[in-house]
Amino acid sequence: MIDFRIEPELQAKLDWMDNFVRTKCEMIDLLYPGHGAPYDVGNTESRAYIKPLQDQVKAQGLWACHLGPELGGPGYGQLTLALMNEILGRSYWAPTIFGTAAPDTGNAEILAMFGTEEQKARFLKPLMAGEIVSTFSMTEPQAGADPTEFTCKAYRDGDAWVIEGEKWFSSNARFASFLIVMAVTNPENPPHGRMSMLIVPTDTPGIEFIRHSQTMGDSKGEDDGTHAYIRYNKVRVPLDAMLGGPGEGFKVAQARLGGGRVHHAMRTVGKCQRAIDMMLERAVSRRTKGKLLSEHQFVQGAIGQSVIELEQFRLLVLKTAWIIDNEPHGAARTHIAMCKVQMAKVYHDIVQRAIQIHGSLGVTLETPLADMWMGLPSLALADGPTEVHLAQVARAYLKNTKPAPGLFPSDHGPSRLAAYQNGVS
């Protein structure tokens, strides 16, 4: 039986998190704005400001909740993590303050699962402490996120791996201390066995940052892009820089994506709830045509539709998290894809309605709504385009569907009746 009950002790922690994010983290969004700000470890002012807040989180036992006790985390299951990430989604600084910012969370997980003791000491320990940030350098300019089309390669030369090729949209690389690079090392293998993961410190000779691309919402006049276009010019790393075994890059990548997509989806639930909260407040505060917005049926419809859609999506994500916790490995794959597909649609519809209800104020930069809206296209593309996951859901159901036994569908009334009358079950 699927059970979403929350124990009183956990509810107390969630209540503390909710108050902390609303009163502390959301204020830091205003003090230090910008998509890249939480990752800029070189900004000593912002780092000094958040350090006491991070200490408070650690004192509550809520630091790096995605990892087990052996790695400094509390070892919560995915359902609990989903509820926590719903709260963190209200603020883009909150994940950094709680030690759960992506892509560092996923990188920490694969370092914990596949890393050697030396790799953990050098890279995982400072990453867990929040002292550094990292980058997952996978996407390529000509292949997007399809690893079977990757051309960036790494080959052995004596006691080193030599990396040659380009990577695109390596998020936060300008701030990172190291990159985890997916490169083709075994071209003779089947497509999903060709790649390997390599840990590359960003000060390694041969790394060329072609540019740091900006996205919607960034200031075009400033160099504030956070998504790097990188060229690896015969970058040499030692043989022990490999994370996992040769040809296991796809396996390693998949290990970091499943839970991360659920967390991402629940953070989106948190953003949507914030938009609904703003919508509700606006509706009972603003008057037009002699009455409150909340008294107009069009506004009531927008609010009602938003609440229903978010509740449906939230339950889907919680069910997915429950499956990960309670079913065999891989059982949640289709549900994870469902979350990815529905996430962008629900987010789009709710934020758009919130902007509409706020009128001209909604399109200004004076509320969080404009920034939410600008993040929509990226939401539909991160971790793979929505269409890829939609097709995956369809294939999962088609795979177990048998064709009709005869000329007509199995639910064809006359055929069923005739079979029944002839004694055919």
UniProtKB/TrEMBL annotation:
The answer on whether this UniProt entry bears the keyword Lyase reads no
Any one Gene Ontology cellular component term annotated for this protein: cytoplasm
UniProt domain Acyl-CoA dehydrogenase/oxidase C-terminal: residue ranges:
247-397
Q: Which InterPro entries match?
A: Acyl-CoA_dehydrogenase, Acyl-CoA_Oxase/DH_mid-dom, Acyl-CoA_Oxase/DH_mid-dom_sf, AcylCo_DH-like_C, AcylCo_DH/oxidase_C, AcylCoA_DH/ox_N, AcylCoA_DH/ox_N_sf, AcylCoA_DH/oxidase_NM_dom_sf
Cofactor field: FAD
The record's Gene Ontology biological-process terms are: fatty acid beta-oxidation using acyl-CoA dehydrogenase
The protein depicted here goes by the name Acyl-CoA dehydrogenase
